[in-house]
Design brief:
99% helix; 147 residues; mainly alpha
Length: 147
Amino acid sequence: EEAEAREAALAGELEESRLQQQRLKASSEVSLAELAAERRQQDEARLRRTVEAQQERQRSEALQEALGERERLLARARADLEKTSSKLRATAQDRAAKLQSAFKVASALRAVVGHKEEERRAATAHAERAAAAAAERDAAAAVLRAE
């Protein structure tokens, strides 16, 4: 009986050990599943961060490229503006010089016209005096002939 009791006790302990082993195995599987889930979450988070960092680098590169393009366009626009400004200054200087020359020519023409007007008046006055003198001579000659 004692042997049977021992055997029964051992069988009970064995069953208890088997149950304990199953509980530990189930607990271990749950822990492994939890660890696997946590690892997946960490991997997913790491992957998201990697993707976000890559996208951020791409956005940064695109912005740098756009900024470079805008700076090139701005430099080109400034160069074009300077070129146009230089042309406008040259044109303005040329026109100012031409206008100044035109004023000088106009002044010279006014002086010539004024001088010619003086000559015409003098010639007219001379012609009038000559005509008056001729009329006096003709009148004197007519008086002499009449006598």
